[in-house]
Amino acid sequence: MQSFRMLGIGLACAVLAACEEKAEVAPPPQQVRVVSAADAQHQPGAEITGEVKARVQTELSFRVSGRVLERKVDVGSHVHAGDVLARLNDTEQQADVSVARAALESAQAVLAQKTLAFNRASSLLQSQAVPRAIFDDAQKELLSAQASLEAAEAALATAKDALSYTELKAAADGIITARSIEAGQVVSAAQPAFTIAHDGPRDAVFDVFEAFFLDGRPLNDVLVAPVSDPTRDVHTNIREVSPVIDAKAGTIRIKVGLQESTSWPLGTPVVAKLRTAPRDGIVLPYTAIASADGEPAVWLVNTQNHTVSLRKISVGRYRQSDFIVTRGVAPQDLVVTEGGKFLKEGQAVAWEGK
What we know:
Blueprint (H helix, E strand, L loop, with lengths): L1 H24 L4 E7 L2 E4 L2 E10 L2 E5 L4 E6 L6 E2 L4 E5 L2 H36 L5 H33 L2 E3 L4 E6 L6 E2 L4 E7 L3 E8 L11 E6 L7 E8 L9 E8 L10 E7 L3 E7 L4 E3 L2 E8 L4 E6 L1 E5 L3 E6 L6 E5 L10 E5 L1
Parallel strand pairs: 1-24
Antiparallel strand pairs: 1-23, 2-17, 3-12, 3-16, 4-11, 5-7, 5-10, 6-9, 7-8, 9-11, 12-15, 13-14, 13-16, 14-15, 17-22, 18-19, 19-20, 19-23, 21-22
Family: Belongs to the membrane fusion protein (MFP) (TC 8.A.1) family.
Subcellular location: Cell envelope
Organism: Rhizobium mayense
């Protein structure tokens, strides 16, 4: 009797083990949500902040050295062409003008004397009262006096120019945007003193990160608006793209021309919406992305055997709510967007979605 009981218990255990093995072999399909991959165009873009600058800016400096006697303007001052911005101590230049003027007067007196001597020698030569050599000497001394007079006149003009250089004048109408001198300071010739932003056309200037240009040069049409009031946006065109990269910042400078009717003050912070040419790709939501050996991948559903497989992909661009696939997914592929965290290669799934 006891042997029959043991046989019954063994049979019951075998049945239970068979049930468990059957459950492990055929688990229920994993429920997932999918999306059908479809071709789509995407247009890479970026919003970059910059500022309004004058199209023409000039650095002004003295053309002679000296001590700054007076500074008449400051940053933000609006000046007109010819306005005196600063003065140097001109004692030395005044002395040079006085010396040059005295030398000119001396040369004029010598020329007058040599002219009289030449005229007298010419009259005596005509009456044959003096030999030809005396006339030739008088003529030579007259020519030398004339040359000395011309040199003295040039020296006086140079001295006057040097005196005028002690006054720094505005080259055009505009606004002073930078100042690097102060009264009492000793400056050298060509040392920057002021920067003037010329009145007239304005540019919106942006330093764009280098990676943006991997998608190609941005389109000429740009939407620009003040940071303080984005509703005042204007459409304008790119006027200049720097041919070199800033080695320190890794940026490329872009200048966008503003219309004359755009009355934004210099230095106004602005934001530009830059775009490149449209490109083909497949757009997928962020929930679809997975990882395969540290590289981006997605789960694809095989509609014939109702299983999933992990496929590595190439991502062209990550965006705020989705990403662009350029390789690895074909149109009409079913991509898992939800429920993919615990999937395994070849696992059976049941899906819903489009």
